Amino acid sequence: MKSPIKTYRQMRLFGNLLNIFFPSKCPICGNRSDSYLHNPICASCWKEIKRYSGPACKICGMPTVSAHTATCELCLKEGPPFSKVLYYGIYEGTLKEAIHLLKFNGVKSLSKPLGLMLSELQIPNADGIVPVPLNHKNLKQREFNQTASISRHLSKELKIPLMLNVLKKTKDTLPQTDVTGKERLKNVKNAFKVSSMVEGLNLLLVDDVITTGATIRECAKVLMNAGAESVNVVALARSMPRQNT
Fold first, then answer.
1. For the residues 14-43, what does the mean pLDDT come to?
2. Each residue of 77-88: pLDDT tens digit?
3. Among 80, 131, 183, 189, which residue carries the largest CB count within 10 Å?
4. For residue 63, what are the domain limits?
5. Helix (H, G, I), strand (E, B), or coil: what is residue 166?
6. How far, in Å, CA of 7 to CA of 124, rounded?
């Protein structure tokens, strides 16, 4: 078996050779890309991605202004169908750029380093990984589901089965970024259905970005209604809360 260090060095050497013959620029700093692992983002900019360690709701992960706020107002008012939300960082800077490159520019190679990034979280044991699905229209436009791609690498790393066809999106909805926070719950209501047996299973629901949490609430609700034992949510990033959105 090859040494991980030797393999990593070989990959870096291969990446350097690629950049000599097919140079590319980092979209963030403009310097030459120098990493095969997360090309086109350079190593220096990639290191700027930091784990969020500030105060947050212990259930949904919503960042809070004070460490004394253990549970946010929404979770106190209406307990969510999921057990807990884990995410890597705040939706800004290099992390935001990496997600955009994967999601909207089709840089599929970024799904692996982003998936490995998720594996660094303290993820609970689970029977399966369920990615948040796209509707048929968006899937046809993008030609792939970025969340499913990330989930595939997370599944391989954690050795937890990937359950691609368990959850399906059956209704075309407006992009969540196009509607306000109060309208987002209505926008995704009854938009998902469970198409496979999940009764008694502990599931990891994976998404790329969480904003108000409307999508993950609806997905977790239909999974729990279908008999899942528990649903924990894992995401790459979470947006900072905004007033009146």
1. 75
2. 888 999 999 999
3. 131
4. 52-238
5. coil
6. 29
Alpha-carbon gap, residue 54 to 3, rounded angstroms = 36
125: domain CATH number is 3.40.50
Q: Please give the model's pTM, rounded to 2 decimal places.
A: 0.85
What tokens does 133 get? 């699905």
Q: Tell me whether residue 76 is in a domain.
A: yes
- Asked whether residue 245 is domain-assigned, the answer is no
Q: Which of 46, 54, 51, 62 is nearest to 98 (CA)?
A: 46
Residues 69 and 57: beta-carbon distance below 8 Å? yes
Q: Are 231 and 83 in contact (CB under 8 A)?
A: yes
- Average pLDDT of the residues of the chain: 85
- The amino acid sitting at 23 is P
The two structure tokens encoding residue 53: 């360690």
The DSSP symbol for 178 reads G
The answer to whether residues 71 and 16 belong to one domain is: no
State pLDDT tens for residues 140-166: 667 789 999 999 999 999 999 999 989
Residues 44 and 108 in one domain: no
